[in-house]
Amino acid sequence: MWRCPLGLLLLLLLAGELALGARRGRGRRELAPALHLRGIRDAGGRYCQEQDLCCRGRADECALPYLGVTCYCDLFCNRTVSDCCPDFWDFCLGVPPPFPPVQGCVHRGRVYPVLGTYWDNCNRCTCQEKGQWECDQEPCLVDQDMINAINQGNYGWRAGNHSAFWGMTLDEGIRYRLGTIRPSSSVTSMNEIHTVLGPGEVLPTAFEASEKWPNLIHEPLDQGNCAGSWAFSTAAVASDRVSIHSLGHMTPVLSPQNLLSCDTHNQQGCRGGHLDGAWWFLRRRGVVSDHCYPFSGRERDEAGPAPRCMMHSRAMGRGKRQATAHCPNSRVHTNDIYQVTPAYRLGSSEKEIMKELMENGPVQALMEVHEDFFLYQGGVYSHTPVSHGRPERYRRHGTHSVKITGWGEETLPDGRTLKYWTNSAMRKDTWPMTTPELLSPQLFS
Ligand SMILES: *[C@@H]1O[C@H](CO)[C@@H](O)[C@H](O)[C@H]1NC(C)=O
Ligand SMILES: *[C@@H]1O[C@H](CO)[C@@H](O)[C@H](O)[C@H]1NC(C)=O
In whole angstroms, how far apart are CA 78 and each of 40, 61, 66, 91? Predict the structure, then answer.
């Protein structure tokens, strides 16, 4: 009697069976269950076709793995007991298969097995038992019909597919990609600061802050799926202005996360917030750099508590403040607190906004964002009427805030001049917009 470990014995047995199978070859095939009598499970699968395989007579090597067993693309498979691959009949013989054509859904040239679930952009689709393809009917953020309509309509800007937006619903875009609460009337009626243009003073037709202040204008940060534009745009404008006003002695990228997590009075972090509250916080509490307190993204559990504030400041006299904690990013040791002077509101005079921008740096603007804005890829954006004929749920809007860094103008084919604002530090092509889109720009000095 001999003994060996169980594992080893199993291995030996398996090897033996494999060897047996190889030797007997055809015998195994003859014993194999008929595929289409047992039920073809992948009715629309392309097997012979994918390998470009069709063999005359009997050819046992003319075989392919089929859901854990083997199917064949040779003429011999077409006998009483069939083990043909599902597409053998139509691909190799050019005739309809002999099994009932019910086990799948045909959708855009592909066949999907019954009861499978698939994503079609932002919608979940299921292949129902009787072969109906059923999808949710949510409007998607990236909408090919809208892209085509905008590009064919000559609206002065190009639409396209932003991969970051693919798979999101329009509702999610409005809920997670914007995030500024419309200001109350007490803010919109705040005193306007008027800049006086000298007599005969002429403003340039184009201006870009990054050209006047090289290295002091910061690239926009990506807010991801955090509806916190209130914090991002405020921190962005403040970063540039701190850099400009300190003549480049300080060039911090101020931390939006510091605002999102710590400016919680009447604010909702990644669910939206007020600009006046953000400016109040920057002035009275101050924030650290983005390096020290980096952006952590939207909390996964939306209903759960917002992330804890990791940075507080205390007064150290003369209106200055200092941090009371180390940087949340443990590799950074500089936790200086940056504060700004009070924010003020600009009037809606185009020239005064321009002069302010040219003299003191980027300004913050509120804008109402519509469904087509998410498709913007270049040109001068204006809201298009392409969704007007569609149901209400395709026509959505929300309030957003952005940093304006310059302006320019272009001549339209009909000879008119189109003036626009720009809002990117480096790429003039990114997110420009026309004046009518702006609602009362606000800023601080
Ligand atoms: C293959 O099988 C089908 C259905 O049984 C039959 O109609 C057809 O004639 C067969 N074709 C060949 C080439 O044997
Ligand atoms: C849009 O972009 C995504 C991600 O890059 C891609 O998977 C998708 O097929 C694109 N959609 C269209 C309609 O081009």
Answer: 14, 16, 16, 13
